[in-house]
């Protein structure tokens, strides 16, 4: 074997080892080597399952790559003639049985661990007398998330939730829309929002903060902009926000109109209504005509989906008011 | 046992340099046509991949945006799966299967030509769909309804049409492979003496035959519902009484889609099982285990489809079934990896380019297999599905696996196909660029997925790590691009390359018994096959005859 091959082998070894070294160092700070820091029991149990699988995956990785590199170095040709035979070994049943049974065993252990964790991940904790579960309807539409609370409060793209209280999510998408996927990495796994189907998942946030996520199923033009966030507030603060928001919504002073504008209209028509994928709407007469704008929102246009078909009266009023006040008057 | 071969009468107009290729029914020429056409589609789909990576170098690029990005992603995926991997393997199989089993041609040469021309037509439709009103299809290679029902213009319809034609092509060639392998093996070649590449093509063909009709049916339903939305309600849930289910399409698609993954990788497993023994100068370790694990993988691949759909909200017992079934596939796959490793043990290993690519395959396919365990465990899948983790996983399997192994196979068989060796020097450089570039491109994508980056987005969050991993990934893709240019250069230069002779690698299987390139009828005579390594036996008998 010409001596030039040795450095090349080292290159292969280097390429394989570098990720491992970075993995070890980054795991402490978790630079993406494990799911993001979980802030809910289900996300926590998922991460534990991930790490448990990683133990075995990492060991097998080391074993296979180690043997591969060792065999290539140890049994390379060197000064032997090219056509010289290696050891003519046709197999070894016991050995082959071992590396069939070994993986079966490992997979059984992994499956068992996952099944033990499954209830923590999947089952919604029952409501307690002191802490009732909060049920929020999550409706995905192109390209926005609507959150509907039991008392009629609606928010867009940003969900508010109380800390330490179980939030049940009832996830769907309207019949006329497409499939989306709800995902806030810190608060658990994905659940698809599918037209004509109701899916359920949940979270119970362990700390206050804003947790980012976004739609995870290709849903069309602005899939990349279908962002979501969950703002977890201290329980008492949430309760007061919840009541205040309802009062505002009834009085027509809530920021719902602006949220609907940003989440639903502005993605295609521009933040100022100046036009983008959709036509310019700022300053048009249509915008000021509440009845025709409502008809358009509920029925849709040629390319425009019927974004407002399932909106509540609160939502419709909030948006038409906002349009009149902020978009209709712009030149 | 020399057989006289009657030369058929060839009309004058068919003798031209171009015309002879257009009318050819020779499996070798058809194989080359397949590989060449697939190469063209690889260039197109690879260019689209570089566009994707260029767009994602930073969060706010506007090189391609919104709609075009979705078109590029869709056509890259569709192109690589349907127009590169499946046909290129059909091409290699076409060239090699008759030679490896000692046959003069495929069982149905004209059907074989028809398969190729269907593929070429499908490719033409695929290319013209870029010019359709509303642009090319932009709903992902999975074309999930209702999104694909709503897609504006005719791009989606042409996409469906091209795949319809392609499924015809693949189904016909699958029948041809099966009949050929069952009926045309050389004397003495019992099933336990069939080359492992041929075994893998056998399973590849059966899978194509079993699952392609399901895809055709699903796409026909999609086409009908797109064209006649008032009459057909398969997938759209609108209307309470006659509503369809979008999830139904996913079941249909993945019943085809998961075996499709194995369709794209089993023949490459076959290549690895041919190349490793030749360059380690050993028999394959555990021939039967390797052959039967191929069959086992093929069988189980049809029972695991819904692990692509864990987030649609299936009942728990189904989730559990699909998780366990998916894990079961890891067992025969693991067997193969260990058998290949054991094939290297105590060998006499030459690190020529085909071997480098195949060793590269072993090292990265292992990573792709291991990341699959995370995806099989459905609660973990809920966290990583539809993110860049999945993108990284299937590129480790289909690029690091299928593509590296395929390149190894091309380097190995090129001298047989064209009579000239590809440059070793360029081959090594090309290997190192592709191997390193591949890992730099796709390893960070695991991390992006775990950090929360979904797939199929043209713009992303401003976040230090997201930006760092994305730019790393893009740099890797350009390194890979250079590697493929070097590979192309090696092919171009091989026109004047070193002559190969019949058997440049001292191979073990029958294709090395004939000349390079083989004559139209392949063999003047075929030796009686006494084991899975007929040429090894022959060389030994010759040595014994010389010494005695």
Give an overview of the whole structure.
The complex is a heterodimer of chains A (331) and B (548). By secondary structure, chain A is an alpha+beta fold. Chain A has three domains: 5-80 and 93-122, no CATH class; 134-251, Immunoglobulin-like, CATH 2.60.40; 256-327, Cytochrome c-like domain (Cytochrome Bc1 Complex, Chain D, domain 2, Orthogonal Bundle), CATH 1.10.760. Chain A contains eight helices and ten strands. By secondary structure, chain B is mostly helical. Classes of the chains: A alpha+beta (331), B mainly alpha (548). The interface between A and B is large, with 96 and 98 residues.
Topology, element by element:
The complex is a heterodimer of chains A (331) and B (548).
Chain A: H1 5-29, H2 41-74, H3 93-122, E1 134-141, E2 144-148, E3 154-156, E4 158-162, E5 167-172, E6 180-182, E7 191-193, E8 199-203, E9 209-214, E10 227-233, H4 235-251, H5 256-269, H6 285-288, H7 290-299, H8 313-327
Parallel strand pairs in A: 1-5, 4-10
Antiparallel strand pairs in A: 1-2, 2-3, 5-8, 6-7, 9-10
Helix pairs in contact in A: 2-3, 5-8
Chain B: H1 19-22, H2 27-55, H3 66-100, H4 109-128, H5 147-150, H6 155-183, H7 196-227, H8 246-280, H9 287-300, H10 316-344, H11 353-376, H12 378-384, H13 388-418, H14 424-451, H15 464-493, H16 534-547
Number of strands of chain B: 0
Q: What is the CATH T-level topology of chain B?
A: Cytochrome C Oxidase, Chain A
The radius of gyration of chain B is 24 Å
Rg of chain A, Å, rounded: 28 Å
Helical content band of chain B: 55-70%
CATH superfamily descriptor of the largest domain in chain A = Cupredoxins -  blue copper proteins
Task: Based on the coordinates given, report the CATH architecture of chain B.
Answer: Up-down Bundle
H and E string of chain A: HHHEEEEEEEEEEHHHHH
Percent in strands of chain A: 15-25%
Count of alpha/pi helices of chain B: 16
Given the C-alpha coordinates, what overall shape of chain B results?
Answer: globular
CATH hierarchy class name of chain B:
Mainly Alpha
Total helices of chain A: the number is 8
CATH architecture of the largest domain in chain A: Sandwich
Globally, the shape of chain A reads elongated
Structurally, how many domains make up the residues of chain A? 3
CATH class descriptor name of the largest domain in chain A: Mainly Beta
